[in-house]
Specification:
By secondary structure, this protein is an alpha/beta fold. The chain is built from eight helices and eleven strands.
Length: 242
């Protein structure tokens, strides 16, 4: 593994969790961008990096991605709630020959959970007696609801269950809609639960994060993997699930 010069675009909870892991793995933090020094994010400062890791805010994510791709600097993105511009980012990635890896969650455990969710949903397609619901719990500082992870889980279920047409961020009695209940409590790093309930039994799968270290480690490993590649990728590509 080569030592990399990494830029942290966003230096909140995730950026601060990523920094010590990257340094421990022999990398250098070449740029740290916060809301206070956003003017330091320039074409020349980005061009000095080997890879960038973007955990900023929805309103700044696309511009940060654009700056990286235009400078041919691969960028790993974990910011959520900007996905109305994802197709633009993919097109820009193709146009520039750059590399972009986006994920709603970088935890290896969560991505294994995603895989289990897809398999279970596939089997449930022939079992309409089960009603499915999601719950996600995060710390009170989390701005978006539902979480990007919950949306990823719900979209995977929708792809497999023909009687489900959409998800909604509230409890609902509409049988064609998957309810997602979002809770914000204390300092919870992230808990996601999927429940299939029938009149005679209940099946539950659950992932509970104990700290942000799993998310941060996954982001650093994804950044190491992305260097030298071109195209749009996700965690399934990184983990070899495709």
């Amino acid at each position: 593994m080569n030592n990399l010069r990494i830029g942290l675009l966003g230096y909140g909870k995730m950026g601060k969790a990523i920094e010590p892991i990257a340094i421990e793995r022999g990398h250098e933090i070449g740029l740290k961008i916060t809301s206070q020094n956003s003017k330091d994010l320039t074409a020349s400062s980005i061009a000095q990096l080997d890879v960038a890791i973007e955990f900023s805010r929805p309103e700044t994510a696309f511009d940060n991605i654009k700056c990286c791709l235009e400078q041919k600097v691969p960028v790993v993105v974990g910011t959520t709630a900007w996905l109305d511009r994802l197709d633009e980012a993919k097109a820009l990635c193709e146009k520039t020959g750059g590399a972009l890896l986006w994920a709603s969650n970088f935890s290896i455990g969560v991505n294994l959970f995603f895989a289990v969710n897809r398999i279970l949903a596939k089997y449930m397609a022939d079992q309409p007696q089960y009603a499915v619901a999601l719950e996600e719990i995060h710390h009170t500082q989390k701005l978006d609801a539902p979480s990007g992870t919950a949306i990823t889980l719900a979209e995977a279920i929708l792809a497999e269950l023909p009687n489900k047409k959409s998800w909604k961020n509230t409890a609902t009695t509409d049988e064609s809609t998957i309810p997602i209940v979002s809770k914000r409590e204390g300092q919870v790093p992230g808990t996601h639960e999927i429940v299939y309930q029938s009149p005679i039994d209940t099946i539950t799968i659950r992932h509970e994060a104990h700290s942000r270290k799993g998310f941060a480690m996954g982001a650093v490993l994804a950044a190491e993997w992305l260097v030298g590649k071109a195209g749009f990728f996700d965690m399934n590509d990184f983990l070899g699930f495709k």
